[in-house]
Amino acid sequence: MRKLKYALMLCFVICATQLTNAQGTLPVYSDYLSDNIFMVHPSAAGIGNSAKLRLTHRQQWNSVGNSPSLQTLSLHGALGQNAAIGGLVFNDKNGFHSQVGVQGAYAYHLNFRSTEALNQLSFGLAASYVQNTLDQSTFVDFDPVVSQVIESDAYFNADLSFAYHNLDGFAYVTIKNIVLNTRQVINPEFKALNLRRYLFNVGYFFGRGQNLQFEPSAMFQYIEATNEKLLDVNAKVYQTFGRTARVWLALSYRRSLDRNEVQELSLLTPIAGVEFNRFLISYTYTHQLGGLIVRDGGFHQITLGINLFNRRRSNRGYNSRYNSFLYKTNN
After folding, report:
1. How far is residue 114 CA from its own chain's centroid?
2. Cα 215 from chain centroid (whole Å)
3. CATH code for residues 2-330
4. I want to staple 76 with a disulfide (CB 3.0 to 4.6 A). Which of 45, 103, 293, 307 is the partner?
5. To the nearest whole number, what is the mean pLDDT of the chain?
């Protein structure tokens, strides 16, 4: 109970001392379904009985010049029985604007049971440093108001996250873009924006220990400044082959809950993945629905992963949806 008291006190202090918000860091896509939930929730650091290295590349609208693209490299794993650390670097480019960032995360997992029946409360905190760049040197039409130079600035940001796993159910709550040091410190004339985003994830894993498994889940997003509300409804199916291979298919539907007469956001995302021993490869395709569509090319993403240092006890800080396959393979 003393550990729980100290962890709660730390979280309350962070919340009470937050400053005004800065620009957001990573966008929230559906790649968290590719065994990459650490990208969204820092409290997932160390979840699993191995460290997880993930490399992603996302490309939007291939037929459009200077279309958005995103590359990420992340690694997280346990640090002892309860603590965990993680790191992330990313390069996000959209036309003439780009941002490069690095993020470090710390998580602490409180295990209330010592048996395989998981009952775990987790706390996570991630701090980010982001460098923004606006390349105006290639603007074709000269405008005397616009300087044809490359402008850049930087800022710090942070995310606060909580998670709870009980048996095969899980829930995550994350507040993104809680700022430790805003761009106002770097440039006093800049007024920081409020881009706080609240994420709520719930799901349940059916079929632990069986070859065929099913995992429904949902994620709700709320953006404070604009009052936008988004809902993801997800379904994921796993099929295990032998002792070293597993294939999974997922389908995610994202819908805006706001009434918009011009265009309501509606995205359909099928995902396919293969795991063989310690290696993972996943392909994600997102198709935009509705009447106002930029291009028919959709959004493509490839995820490559390796599970490292698979030496932890399977009943410490794991959830069956990540480890039932590894547990069956190694026992």
Report:
1. 29
2. 18
3. 2.40.160.40
4. 45
5. 78
